[in-house]
Amino acid sequence: MAGLFLNFFKVNLENDEFDLSNISYSDYESKEDYFELQDNYPDHQFYRVNSRIHYWSKNGSSKLLPLNSIKSRVNSKTEPKIISKIVESCLMNVLVNDERLEVNRKSHSYSWDVLSSNNILKGIKGLAAFNCYNITPRFIRKNDNVILGFTISLRTKFKFLNDRKTLEANGFDTVGLKGDENEIYPNTPAVKRYVEAMGYSAVYESFRKTHFNNQKNYEGIFKFVSWLNSNIIPKVKLPNGSSLKPITFYNIPSTEFNHQILRRPKRYFYSGQEDTKNLKYYNQKVKEYKPASFDEIDSVVQIGVICPKKHEGRTETFLKTVKNRLETELHIKHITFVTKFIEDERLESYASVLYDEELQKSKTVIVVVSEDQKIIPVKQSPYYYCKAKLIGMGIPTQLIRVETVNTGVNSFAMTNLTLNIYAKIGGTAWTIEKEDKLKKEFIIGIGSTTLDDGNHVLGLAQIFDPDGRYLVGDCAPVSTFDNYKENLKTFLKRIIKEEIESASISGSEEFRLIFHIYKSPSSEYELSAVKEVIELFREYSFTFALIHLAYGHNYRLFYGQGTQKVSKGLYLPIDDYEALLNFVPHSNLPLKIRLDGRSTFQDLQYLSQQVYWFSDLSHRSYMPAKRTVTLMYPSLMVALTEKLKEIDGWDFDRLKHINDKLWFI
């Protein structure tokens, strides 16, 4: 059985040298002129590199175009971008002209979707499913060699066979589903509602079980590659008169790729204790060794509760379990509850108790709401109203749904719930080790969320190590790109200045700034802000690293032909600037870590291990997170902040009162 497999397929060329025609970009600088050039010669590919536009026939023709051209010779070693584009354009030209397929280039990317016409979903009237293969061209530099190829992945694409009116006439409620006037988009919520409403749940679940697994995904990719090699590759004609050889693959380790398993960090508890008894579960370890912040939390902690009267008895029983967990597992000596039972679930009823003197003395407040309040607009939401007003008083809140109280919470979920509450009162259940460094190091996470209008809103989170252990520092929303650079610059200036003043650091000290960013770094924002901050502290020495962390890519990892798990912590360098890191053993989608080449600190493995260790810092659950907190925390924080802004009277500056608590988890 095969071992580790990466879905990168190598392109093999008979001849990698091309004599290409090219024209001056200055003659086609406007978008209109450039698009007209492409429209006039649809059989040719035009590709700009700096001041020249190279072009070639996508079908191997040697036809000359009536353009003011010159010739230049390129090969894969000198111009891998151009050669990769040649291979892509000629391959996709054959696929686009295959009438059995629907081929589309994905917007704002370099990848293509190839949709099969064969419906693989049987037994559900009005719904179809098709295999959709994503092809993304890629070239990799390995020492002095350049490897050309494609990543190929597979997903299932659903399609409603009837328009909106027909669906509604058949008794399907389309209210709230995304789409336009004529159709409903077949996203997961729409498909799930359809199969449940029309009585096809069993058929759908059987289909998912059969098709939505790594083994089926692996088999589908190889079946498609075999079809490409047999039916498409022989038809591809390159502009130098040569052909493509069949695309190939290798299991890992190979001459191009190798991997290793990064170790998990040690967790430290009260007084720096480690687990010496090899306890199985993390909550057992906290219970045995006490939380890291054991002597920093008051012996008596008061928690407020706001709950409608009709849920009083069940809520009291539920709170007894919460109290027991906080006292036994997290070692708070005594929990007291201040309960405010309100008349009903109207916003006015919740608001009536918010300024109660007893409630305002609480470390955190539990707000009990019903499930149907999730769809209430933020401005009318009791939960968001309570959260906004109480945060203004420096009091975080914990949401508990009535349905959770009714059904009870399983032991695992209750353990995580009490951990959340502990974090919100300012507690730290554990810290993790760090490797000793010669330089002061700041790690800044930059995450984002997408608003209903499609705009991105950004947030920052600082992770720092004042006592030799990683701890979560303060977080700050950044808002939109309009003020992103200035806010980032202000944030960096403040944390560096505070560190210099608090530690009495001399000018001989060196600093390292490491940025975990949800998008590709740019000269306009991140790089510019960093350079300006470094200039402000010119008497000190700085190095910096900008790394882009993303799941929006086309790499997939399989083990044992998809029948076995990919090890957690598996680290696979693609080249000197890019690596894959696996967080979830059951998933075939790893995290891609891309180091910006303009960084002055370039130890990719060191940076990747740091990213991996930060997943152990999440205090949403005892289990390591599925992604690093440096992106998760600022994303959660800014998403919640944007909602709070909708509450009348909300003041953003009030967040400064609670930046030592994880109020947003």
UniProtKB/TrEMBL annotation:
InterPro entries: Piwi (IPR003165), RNaseH-like_sf (IPR012337), RNaseH_sf (IPR036397). Residues 364-646 form the Piwi domain. GO terms for molecular function: nucleic acid binding. PROSITE patterns: PIWI. SUPFAM superfamilies: Ribonuclease H-like. Belongs to the argonaute family. Long pAgo subfamily. This is Protein argonaute. It comes from Aquaticitalea lipolytica.
